[in-house]
């Protein structure tokens, strides 16, 4: 790091709440035959019940610490809650089912005392607001008893069911042309294009995993809400069928893997002779397209493409298209580059990052578009850094980092462009307004800090709340260490947070569909301490300085 090493400072901010669950073991074996039967599947579920999880939503105490001064305007109630002004001058949220909490920010734990055995607890719109959906061959209502082959045959489309060696195992022998664990994938079951309009009933992934129901409590519990994120998509409903509501390359679904929420593409083939999948770049990338200025609009991710797992370990490409991986190697070296910090793309040739990320005697490059640091992805763009400009007011003390911002000028790759705009690479906007404390914003990164290389191969993301300067400058928080060049956000309570933030990465707040970069991940006191949230460089204080470089073309 530039300047003296600070032992008491942990450069943090990605506050990722992880829940521990026990995975349900299962074995799938595939046997190929040549007598007209294509596939025989042997499927055995474990007999232990899945462990109960804990709610990962932000707790009420955090909202009590915020300065929410506008009462019901704007509406502080989340998830469709309505707001009334209370007699004491505060506000009261009236929450729709199944939400609760001061701001309707928490999902009611209606499944807490429900044991669905070998199934999944899903939410319903009528009391008791839950239902157990069973995996074959287990039976409702509690998914604890198995009905093997007779009288109920779990194999579909005329498949034959055979009992396996254990009391809960069975085999499906599928008719010619059918496959899948339950013979549920037919010869005419395919998707056209990218599968946006696929409305079939396949409910397993390419790895043989069972899809979760879109109304699964486990999905909501882990911070995702398909009905809100993909509102208006006809295929999203109380089912577990594969869909493509967000412009991916093919249908997908959520799965529960090792006790965590994941997603995967589905076991559906593409229709023969189907129209080609639309290209993954915008029309402006085509050499035959009419001349259009790239990056003409900032702060807009690919339409409909939102992060599927907020706070998880896998973020979909295009959800944070301004996210940059800043990578370095020793000057003059021919060795590989390694990820050291995050950054934010503001212009084709300019990246904003933290000043403390800039090291002397190093060669820098940025990688844009991808989400996996360990793999070369088709949408990656690698651009060398020609110049690093540290803010002239940057200084490091034993307690804080002041004016912790820097600009990176990129090398022109295809005149006049450095980075090229695609559906996976876009710019964030500079802030045009002041966001109130209590505003929910997004952070993303791979977990690179001063003390570790990075926490995950895959891009992480999380939601944090802006905290007022008054709260952050309290003596028991950061006191006089905090100045106007910085602010804090996240979790005051401590204890449950992971120090997995990318130094130099973005804190982005959304307003009317436009994403504005409000903060740059800077520093914090320790990891997971009570009253020690993450601290960010206050981008609003540096707009003129940043713009002087953006406008110097």
UniProtKB/TrEMBL annotation:
Its main location: secreted. InterPro entries: EGF, EGF-like_Ca-bd_dom, Kringle, Kringle-like, Kringle_CS, Kringle_sf, Peptidase_S1_PA, Peptidase_S1_PA_chymotrypsin. Residues 68-105, 145-184 form the EGF-like domain. It catalyses: Preferential cleavage: Arg-|-Xaa, Lys-|-Xaa. The lineage of its organism: Eukaryota, Metazoa, Chordata, Craniata, Vertebrata. GO terms for molecular function: calcium ion binding; serine-type endopeptidase activity. Its EC number is 3.4.21.4. Disulfide bonds join 95-104, 155-172, 174-183. This is trypsin. Residues 1-25 form the signal peptide. SMART domains: EGF, EGF_CA, KR, Tryp_SPc. The keyword Lipid biosynthesis does not apply. It comes from Cynoglossus semilaevis. GO terms for biological process: cellular response to oxygen-containing compound; proteolysis; response to lipid. It is found in: Secreted, Extracellular space. Keywords: Disulfide bond, EGF-like domain, Glycoprotein, Hydrolase, Kringle, Protease, Repeat, Secreted, Serine protease, Signal.
